[in-house]
Amino acid sequence: MQRPRVVITGIGLTSPNGDSLSTYRNNLLSGVPGVEFVEHRYIGRVPAGVCHYDARKYQNRKEIRNGTRAGSISIYCAREAVADSGLDWNAVAKDRVGVYMGITEHGNVETEIEVFNISQFDYDVKYWTHHHNPRTVANNPAGEVTMNMGITGPHYTIGAACAAGNAGLIQGVQMLQLGEVDLALSGGVSEAIQSFGIFAGFKSQGALAMGDEATKISRPFDKARSGIVVSEGGCVYVLERLDDALARGAKIYAEVAGYHTNSDATDAVLPNPVRQAECMRKALAMAGMTPQDVDILSTHATSTPAGDVQECAAIREVFADCPLLNVNNTKSFIGHAMGAAGALELAGNIPSLSDGMVHPTINVDELDPDCALEGLVIGSAKKLSRAEVILNNSFGMLGINSCVVIKKFAQA
User: Which of 116, 178, 240, 411 is deepest in the core (most CB within 10 A)?
Assistant: First the structure.
């Protein structure tokens, strides 16, 4: 079956080191991280990636108070993406717009906060907010976007652990190719830094990163890496069928060339490099490409001792003879943005297709020999001899893997 070509025409984001694509990209190229220390209820001082976007830009105080942090981030990113796309939003048929947001988890934050609040009143449920149920349903982030923007087409969130940012984008592509919608707002979101359970869970697993200098704690591939820095954030893409984008003279960032998702079916936490390698290969096969065609490989690597090694083993197996390959990592700058991670990491690399630069992995003081990859870009940005194809890796718990292949747009 000949699938319609799908392109990216708008990008909106908020991350710990930038609230627009231009700021975010400049900070990635310049080596500017965005992790800081926060005081968290029960667990104390922890490093986290915190977003500082202006929520009042698209919401009033009441909307922010009644909604969720994930919803607010999603609204900000979706509105920014539409503005970036150049669409005449008033003229868009809102029943032909779909909203697809990837999430790692949702509802934990709101429930934890309410339990804490009523604990101050001897657990009297009359103090429990009547906003709790709409705040905690799984479709909340995407649903808040539709309410804010008057969208009457389909909306849902895609629960795919930390592969969710890619999964949200993939869902939008598929719905466009099926003809179910004419415009998709797709990506991922995370409010994880507000959840005690997220921090406590990683700490109990021995996977929560700690250290004295916040901006150096997230250190994928480094021999001294100690675990995950929990972050929040969001990224939304405007996706359109190519014919529609060309008809309105849209700016085209890139084309979605291929994708694949699969499952390890082996362990809830430890990645399976065989299945990860398979996911990368099948995404490239869908795109009609070989490993030698890839110019930038954006790694998922979370800064956990075992996880980074497993992914590197998969990469070596797929990209054994690829002299033009450049490998980087974005979590070294912003920590692990969970459901938003894959979408944000892809966004940080997409400008490479036009400016020919690749941002580095930072905080690698002593490279772990088990993570030594050919083409790993460390410390400073690099000018590329070719910048046409990006492979974005995004993996998650319960062994869910997702890979997206993006290519520079060409008419033919």
Answer: 240
Q: Do domains 6-247 and 258-407 have the same CATH topology?
A: yes
28-43 tens-digit pLDDT: 999 999 999 999 988 8
- 3-state class (DSSP) for residue 254: strand
Structure-token match 């694509």, residue found: 21
Q: What are the tens digits of pLDDT across the range 303-322?
A: 999 999 999 999 999 999 99
Q: Where are the alpha helices (DSSP H) in 124-211?
A: 132-136, 140-149, 164-178, 196-205
CA 171 distance to own-chain centroid: 14
Domain boundaries, the chain: 6-247, 258-407
Q: Provide the whole-model pTM.
A: 0.97
Q: Which two tokens stand for residue 329?
A: 């990592």
Q: CA 187 → CA 167, 227, 229, 324, distances in Å?
A: 8, 25, 21, 29
Whole-Å CA distances, 332 to 219, 286, 300:
5, 30, 11
If residue 221 lies in a helix (H) or strand (E), which one and from where to where?
none
The correct answer on CATH 3.40.47.10 for the domain covering 258-407 is: yes
Cβ–Cβ < 8 Å for 24, 17: yes
Cβ atoms within 10 A of the Cβ of 270, count? 14
- C-alpha 337/C-alpha 318 separation (Å) is 26
* Torsion 223-227-232-234 (CA) sign: positive
Cα 12 → chain centroid: 12
pLDDT of residue 2: 86
Determine which helix (DSSP H) or strand (DSSP E) holds 324, and give its type and residue range: none
Output phi, psi for 255, to 5 deg: -110, 140
Which residue type is seen at 39? E
Per the DSSP assignment, residues forming a β-bridge with 259 are 404
Residue identified by tokens 């959840």 is: 195
DSSP 61: H
The domain made up of 6-247 is a member of CATH 1.10.1740.10? no
Distance CA 391, CA 352 (A): 12
Q: How far apart (Å, rounded) are the C-alpha atoms in residues 198 and 395?
A: 17
The average pLDDT across 5-32 equals 98
Alpha-carbon distance of 302 to 209, in angstroms, equals: 10
- The 3-state DSSP class for residue 190 equals strand
- β-pair type (97-103, 183-190): parallel
